[in-house]
Amino acid sequence: MELSESVQRGLRSLAEPSTFDQSSYGVLVDVSFRSLLSAKAEPGVLDQPELKQIDQILLKQSHTAATTFILEAVKHNADKSAISSCLEELAFSAERIEIFYSTHQKHKKELERLLASIGRCPPRINDASWRLQYHVKNDQVDKVNEPFYLISLNTENEGSEEDINFTCTVEQLQDLVGKLKDAAKSVEKASQM
């Protein structure tokens, strides 16, 4: 795993026993994993009572470095030896490496699922259907006399089908068709390169 200089600096601070004692180290590692997995706002790294005595900027840098390292380790499917050797290069003690690795193992499957859910392909359109409707009047005005289209797109994403329904005016439909034609031309050009 290649880590940027700022990540290495943050991890070296985290490895320093004079900055992070054993208790605060464990709390920071745990909070780093939980912050990646939590969808709702939980108490952050700055709200932990065990970490109040540590400089706020250093704490943020170490937290950012730890979360970056966690994501890189999961992304590369790093085993214990890869994680250990990387952390040893950054002056981590064997005990701190073990704490990190055991926490990593505890959350590894959840993090893999999280990373796998990022960047999925958009749904593929299998079919499109439309129906012309006509607004005669609405609640605010007695006479509207305006056509609109009901569009239904049958899409598929990873084996599951879903219908996407929306309405649009004639102008909006013309704009959509123009954009789809532009997109098709762009794809065709890209495939010829």
From TrEMBL:
COMM domain boundaries: 124-191
Q: Which domain of life is it from?
A: Eukaryota
Name one matching Pfam family. Answer: COMM_domain
Q: Which PROSITE patterns match?
A: COMM (PS51269)
Under InterPro entries, the record lists: COMM, COMMD3
Instruction: Extract one GO BP annotation from the record.
Output: sodium ion transport
Report the sequence similarity comment from the record. Answer: Belongs to the COMM domain-containing protein 3 family.
Q: How is this protein named in the record?
A: COMM domain-containing protein 3
- Species for this entry: Sander lucioperca
